Amino acid sequence: MLTDAELAKNIAKSAGDLLMSLRANFSGDLDDLRDTGDAQAQTLISGLISENRPDDAILSEEAVDDLARLNADRVWIIDPLDGTWEYGEGRWDWAVHIALWQRSADDITDAAIYLPATGQLFSTDVPPVLPKWPLDSAKIVVSRTRPPKRLTEIQSQISELLRKEKLAQSLELLEVGSAGAKTAALITGEAQLYIHDGGLSEWDAAAPFAIAKAAGLVVKHFDGSELKYNKAQVKLAAIYLATPKMADLLNQIEL
């Protein structure tokens, strides 16, 4: 029998491969491609979870929220296609998110994200090893379409601290689509900070942020509190992901 982490990886990979094949062979308009991708990935993922873990509940962006999950001991929190817009544009920065929340831990215990266009698969059972701090520059990764309202101010303050600590001359900007792809940028060392000042839902965050924590990244709400999942209200308050060194700098400014 597959472990929960192995199952998460297998499901993410299967859904991602389906989405890549669909995009390569689709002849309709882009909105139809996005809708079809969302629907087919949802059907595949929910079917595989039900087949392998029939007693578990599911919370998904692409399905009606059954609040019976609030009393369940195990809840799969999934985003079948995170970055639907980027997927339709033919871009790389979209992902499949699969996470398992367990009541015994009151947290995500197993997770996988798959970026099919780049072939990157990350999971909690084999935590990524964070690269060393870059020698020449530091980067903040933000949403392509909804950057933080105080981005310019935060970027300026962190840049000043980076120069003071002789870590980098500035904090450069990196715009990326899905939350999974942004998290991958930190895991692989392309960026050292990810800020989102509100609007994410549990399915956006659960899988990538659990992997980020397993890799040693700091994942917090702006007020310093930990993220909580399987709540009736699935919207999350403002969050940041940071390398430990960058998190120390963040503590010196007001978010």
- Give me the number of helical elements: 7
Amount of beta strand: 15-25%
Whole-number average pLDDT? 96
Name the CATH architecture of the largest domain: 2-Layer Sandwich
Number of domains: 2
Assigned CATH superfamily of the largest domain: Fructose-1,6-Bisphosphatase, subunit A, domain 1
The biggest beta sheet is recorded as:
5 strands, mixed
Structural summary, described in words:
With 255 residues, this protein is an alpha/beta fold. The protein folds into two domains: 4-123, Fructose-1,6-Bisphosphatase, subunit A, domain 1 (Fructose-1,6-Bisphosphatase, Chain A, domain 1); 138-250, 3-Layer(aba) Sandwich (D-Maltodextrin-Binding Protein, domain 2). The protein is built from seven helices and ten strands. The protein has helices at 4-25, 30-52, 84-89, 151-164, 179-187, 202-215, 244-250; strands at 57-60, 74-82, 95-102, 107-115, 120-123, 138-143, 171-176, 193-196, 218-221, 239-242. Strands 1-2-3-4-5 form a five-stranded mixed sheet, sandwiched between helices. A five-stranded mixed sheet has the order 7-6-8-10-9. Helix 1 (4-25) runs antiparallel to helix 2 and helix 5 runs parallel beside helix 6. The radius of gyration is 18 Å and the shape is globular. The mean pLDDT is 96.
